[in-house]
Specification:
Elements (H helix, E strand, L loop, with lengths): L2 E5 L4 H13 L3 E6 L14 E5 L5 H8 L4 E4 L6 H15 L3 E5 L10 H10 L4 H12 L4 E7 L1 E3 L7 E4 L8 E3 H13 L7 E6 L12
Parallel strand pairs: 1-2, 1-4, 2-3, 4-5, 5-6, 6-10, 7-9
Antiparallel strand pairs: 8-10
Helix pairs in contact: 1-6, 2-3, 3-5
Pfam families: NAD_binding_10
Protein name: NAD-dependent epimerase dehydratase
InterPro entries: NAD(P)-bd_dom (IPR016040), NAD(P)-bd_dom_sf (IPR036291)
């Protein structure tokens, strides 16, 4: 049995991963988030530990992280680099080595053409944080998987393809359910995608911007 810590556990993707892990594995979960009562549906689940905390409070994060075998970060925001720095420090303090974390397309200037130009403008405020976080993780000595999804949809489908960081990003969209499936697969097979940055997109969605824009 594996114990997985999910940081930023209230996020939509994190909740999909949580449900999939609880239904399809016997793993135990540490769900770390602000206002843990928002996930009160798990408070009586013997496989779930809810932790109400601030990711920037590194010592508090490390205390919660101590029993975990793997760490999955679903964090985001313009201060992502600061948050990831705290996760890295907590992992180093507790001797944890395996990190899976959500990033974004464009984190490595890998999105080509007009779509790349549009994406740079659309998430201009967030890209510096994604890029700084990626550099911090790569230099940390941790074994990591960086997940770079295309623009997210709530479509009820698992349909995706992957690209590596040295390949041009493909497609404009991908479902949250698809990203959760990929994350689930890495968390349950942690020897896969080691020290890789993986782009995720729905096949045949190439264009200058997502279809709904």
């Amino acid at each position: 049995m594996t114990k997985i810590m999910i940081v930023g556990a209230y996020g939509a993707m994190a909740q999909l991963v949580t449900e999939k892990l609880l239904k399809e594995t016997d793993n135990e979960l540490i769900l770390f988030l602000r206002q843990a009562e928002r996930l009160a549906q798990y408070q009586d689940n013997p496989r779930v530990q809810l932790v109400d905390g601030d990711v920037l409070a590194t010592d508090q994060l490390a205390t919660a992280m101590a029993p975990a075998d793997l760490v999955y970060s679903n964090l985001g925001g313009v201060d992502l680099a600061e948050q990831i720095a705290s996760v890295i420090k907590a992992m180093q303090q507790t001797g944890k080595t395996r990190l899976v974390y959500i990033s974004s397309l464009g984190a490595h200037h890998e999105v080509p053409g007009k779509y790349g130009e549009w994406n740079e403008q659309a998430i201009h405020d967030y890209l510096p944080g994604f890029r700084a976080a990626a550099k911090l993780v790569a230099a940390s000595g941790l074994t990591y998987t960086e997940v770079r999804p295309a623009w997210l949809t709530n479509n009820d489908e698992v349909d995706y393809e992957t690209t590596q960081v040295d390949e041009p990003f493909k497609g404009t969209e991908v479902s949250r359910k698809s990203v959760a499936d990929f994350v689930f697969n890495v968390l349950t097979q942690p020897d896969t995608h080691r020290n890789e940055s993986v782009g995720l997109n729905k096949p045949n969605t190439d264009g200058d911007k997502p279809s709904w824009m």
